[in-house]
Structures are given as C-alpha cells and as structure tokens.
C-alpha cells in the first residue's frame, strides 16, 4: 500500500484533521527530541500527506518520539502529531520494520522484566556491551552523572514483581 492508500490508512488511525496541516512547524519546534531526529515531525506529516510511505517508515524519528504531547497541545490546527507517529509505528510493527536501535529496546524490556524498573547503570552497561561503538560516549556520560549523584549504583527492584511477571506472560500469550 503506497501513495494514497498509505495516506488514507494513517489518516484513519490518526485523524482526519491531518489534512488541515499548514506545515507551520509548531510541532517540530515544540519537540524536545527534534534535534535527534532525521525528519522533523512536520516533515513526517508532509511525507504522510504526499503518500511517501517508504520515506516515512524509514525515518528514525518515529522511534525517538517521547510521547510528551507538546506537539499536540501546541498545534494551531488541532492535529495530533503524536497520533501520526503512533500510526506510523503501528504500520512499521505490522510490516516487521523495527528501529535501528531495537537492541536498546530489548535491553530496556529485559530490565523491566527482571527488576520492574530500569537502572541507568545496568541499562547503559548492557547496551554498551551489545553496541561497542556506543561504549565510550556512554561511559563518559555515566562518569559525569555518577560524579554529580544523578544516577545510583544500586539497581533496586520494585515491589510486586509477581504482577509484572504476570503482565509479561499475558503479553507473550497474545
């Protein structure tokens, strides 16, 4: 499904108001992770409206959205850019397209499964082991954060781990 079919699918998932986008860029200027994105949120919406499926789904920006909803709150046309990103993620997942950083997601979920929370130190160490190219910047940042007391060496564990394990089991059975 390319072209108009792709556009219609995203509009069905994210809302008819997408058609009213004036490309003002308010969504992109509000985004806290815009500086990390290969395509701004404004450009993602344009790609959707132009039916450029391959480019839209290949964008790493889809995976960088933090769901803070500032784009949605500030849009002068009432468009929900986060809903567009969610629609693109859904289409990616259905088509077996994953983030370039899928290994980070696995490490993150492994920590939630085993401790019920994420330890910045363990997460960084596990990610660095799987991605040696990222090890040096992670270590530099970790040393700085540790020296400022911003991260703890205690990985901790939440209460109610049996409930978390149950949620994972139910999710795996779907």
From TrEMBL:
Domain 4Fe-4S ferredoxin-type: 18-79
An annotated GO cellular component: plasma membrane
InterPro entries: 4Fe4S_Fe-S-bd, 4Fe4S_Fe_S_CS, HdrC_iron-sulfur_subunit, Helical_ferredxn
Residue intervals passing through the bilayer: none
GO molecular function: 4 iron, 4 sulfur cluster binding; metal ion binding; oxidoreductase activity
Family (UniProt): Belongs to the HdrC family.
Protein name, UniProt field: Putative heterodisulfide reductase, C subunit
């Amino acid at each position: 499904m390319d072209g108009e079919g792709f556009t219609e699918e995203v509009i069905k998932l994210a809302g008819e108001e997408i058609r009213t986008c004036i490309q003002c860029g308010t969504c992109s200027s509000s985004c806290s992770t815009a500086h990390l994105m290969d395509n701004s949120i404004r450009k993602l919406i344009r790609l959707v409206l132009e039916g450029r499926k391959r480019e839209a789904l290949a964008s790493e920006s889809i995976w960088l959205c933090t769901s803070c909803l500032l784009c949605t709150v500030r849009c002068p046309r009432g468009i929900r850019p986060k809903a567009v990103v969610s629609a693109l993620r859904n289409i990616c997942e259905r088509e077996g397209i994953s983030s370039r950083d899928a290994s980070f997601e696995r490490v993150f979920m492994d920590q939630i499964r085993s401790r019920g929370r994420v330890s910045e130190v363990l997460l960084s160490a596990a990610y660095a082991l799987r991605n040696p190219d990222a090890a040096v910047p992670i270590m530099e940042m970790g040393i700085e954060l540790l020296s400022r007391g911003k991260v703890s060496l205690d990985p901790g564990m939440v209460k109610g781990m049996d409930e978390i394990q149950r949620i994972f089991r139910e999710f795996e059975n779907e």
